[in-house]
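Sequence in, structure out. Go.
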Amino acid sequence: MTQNFTLLFLFFFALTLGIRLWLKLRHIRFVAAHRAAVPPEFAERVTLETHQKAADYTVDRSKTAVAGTVIDAALLLAFTLGGGLAGLHDFWAARLDGLFYGLAMIFSLMLISGLVDLPLSLYSQFVIEARHGFNRMTLGLFIADLVKQTLLGLLIGAPVILAVLWLMGAMGDFWWFYVWLFWSGFNLLLMFVYPTWIAPLFNKFSPLDEGEMKSRVEALLARCGFRSSGLFVMDGSKRSSHGNAYFTGFGDNKRIVFFDTLLTRLDPPEVEAVLAHELGHFRRKHVAKRMAMLFAGSLAFLWLLGQLIDAPWFYAGLGVDAQNTALALILFFLVMPVFTFPLTPLMSHLSRRHEFEADAYAAEHAAASDLIQALVKLYRDNASTLTPDPLHSLFYDSHPPAAQRIAHLQLQGARG
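Output:
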């Protein structure tokens, strides 16, 4: 059984890695092949120079993603069949036991992974983003963010990991259900406290100034029957020139947040249309549906781990001779992405469908033409390619391709 599981893992590992690299290389070739001409439907809105800038940016980011894919794959093999996890176990088992052994194992894994990923993160931020005019982050700010993230990981992550490991060892055969209850509650709590307590550690949030913009936004909220705890502008420009808008939190702690870069580029009617799209996600219950899927998926995965936790072949098949709850948790979440990769296009399809539904909602409560104009500006300013490879888009894109999305909005506008 051990050998069979090893072979099964290697088969899915090779298949997943091969498909991921093939899709990225297809995407690079497709975007480069369509670099010379603006798609006809955008010819009057986007210049050739802007289109080529987006193509070059997409190709550079995709090449970096190829390198990241190879590094992640090598790290996974090193931790499992390469003996890395077994070596960590030998080191910590000789020094710690119980819950603190498990905590040390998990944090060691996170530290090593973070250090391996760090050079590519620095390259992406300070070479790729800077080359295309998007980076505004200093090295000092990058380090400050890294320190804050590390401290938050320790302060929040350590108690959570200890609680999960304790539940796994103390709750008997149905530990997976108790862990699921705890994990679901923790996620809901995190969603509630994030806007007020965590996000301000990284960005400054200022109330939206009085004026036409605020008046339009408040009128839209009234029309849509949406109540929030405030309208805020985030200083996203201190890290990047990319623009965005989102709402966060739930219950009485919902916040609507605009990037300052977004407000400098879009006119008030266009901002109103973008916000109507975001409200569409809320009104069509996309947030609740995604949370329900997350909770259902985590319950299924924890149940599956409950079936594997006492199986010697599960550990040995992945290069680890020892058995304990911490090793089971680590191995499971290391290798599950290899086996669940076929679900990627399904999740992307669901996300794109939600985007179409949110666009339709926006067309009902704002002008579809304003949203189209806002999207074109965002595509242009964020250097988003207008010509993605269709198969790559099918697998990975959470938003519909630009041409499809705008055609859909034009149809909605004509109906309106």
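Check: DSSP finds 16 helices and four strands in the chain. The CA atoms of residues 348 and 397 lie 6 Å apart.
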